[in-house]
């Protein structure tokens, strides 16, 4: 019996960062990744209860679908989001159905637009480093866009802090400690962490987060939809269980 060999099609996904935040020797600097279509093997990942329980199921899936020789943990969050949307389209098609105001609504995921990185914001091409002057304290900070490795470290640190104090909610301050690289030119990690905990004004923190939100590369998950009153509103795409499990009940 001859061995069955089939060539499965792949698709090229453009990264919202355009690859500009990755070092030149990193394959992600091409601004693209190649992905394969989902098969029954990848569906096994989606139904793996251990992966679902520990929160790693989507990371396991996306790693399996990326054909390009890249380090998945190097992907910044916005690029990872673009890969996630592409994975859903390649696996189950572009139509995503969910409930809005108790009625089924379908959005065409292929129509979602990417917000590409404004390269003029970069301090240096190929370096994930930007700067911002806090408007109230006038402190100059440099910062980076978080990658998947950072996200895992933040999750682990926050989990540990909550074990120490179950009433605490340290995620915001912890994220800032990973995002900020230097304070007035001082890149000592201890200095950065102390600044976030003791000296960063709440209004500066808010202004900084709004600034990042305004320019970071990502895929825009907003869409327009008319409600039961006939008024069209801009909504954010809800990530319900049917996003990667479309056969589940809405």
How would you describe what is shown here?
The structure is a single chain. This protein is of the alpha+beta class. It is built from eight helices and eleven strands. It has helices spanning 40-46, 49-54, 57-65, 77-92, 148-164, 171-179, 189-199, 202-215, and strands at 10-14, 32-36, 95-100, 103-108, 114-115, 130-133, 140-143, 180-183, 218-219, 222-226, 232-236. Strand 3 and strand 4 form a beta hairpin.
Q: Could you provide a short overview of the structure?
A:
36% of the residues lie in helices and 19% in strands. The protein contains eight helices and eleven strands.
Annotation keywords:
single chain; 250 residues; alpha+beta; 3-stranded antiparallel β-sheet; 8 helices; 11 strands
The number of helical runs is 8
Proportion of helical residues: 25-40%
Nearest-integer average pLDDT = 90
Tell me about the biggest sheet? 3 strands, antiparallel
Class from secondary-structure proportions: alpha+beta
């Amino acid at each position: 019996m001859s061995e069955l060999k089939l060539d499965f099609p792949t698709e090229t996904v453009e990264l919202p960062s355009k690859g500009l935040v990755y070092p030149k020797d990193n394959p992600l600097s091409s601004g693209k990744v190649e992905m394969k279509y989902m098969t029954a093997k990848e569906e096994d990942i989606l139904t793996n209860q251990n992966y679902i329980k520990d929160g790693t199921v989507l990371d396991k899936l996306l790693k399996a679908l990326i054909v390009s020789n890249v380090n998945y943990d190097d992907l910044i969050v916005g690029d990872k989001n673009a890969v996630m949307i592409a994975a859903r389209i390649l696996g189950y098609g572009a139509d995503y159905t969910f409930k809005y105001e108790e009625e089924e609504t379908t959005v065409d995921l292929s129509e979602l637009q990417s917000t590409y990185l404004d390269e003029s914001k970069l301090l240096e091409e190929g370096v994930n480093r930007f700067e911002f002057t806090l408007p109230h304290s006038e402190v100059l900070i440099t910062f980076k866009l978080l990658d998947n490795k950072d996200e895992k470290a933040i999750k682990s640190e926050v989990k540990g802090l909550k074990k120490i104090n179950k009433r605490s909610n340290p995620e915001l301050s912890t994220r800032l400690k990973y995002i900020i690289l230097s304070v007035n030119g001082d890149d000592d990690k201890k200095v950065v962490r102390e600044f976030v905990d003791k000296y960063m004004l709440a209004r500066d923190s808010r202004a900084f987060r709004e600034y990042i939100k305004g320019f970071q590369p990502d895929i825009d998950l907003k869409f327009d939809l008319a409600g039961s009153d006939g008024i069209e509103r801009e909504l954010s795409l809800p990530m319900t269980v049917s996003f990667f499990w479309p056969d589940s009940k809405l």
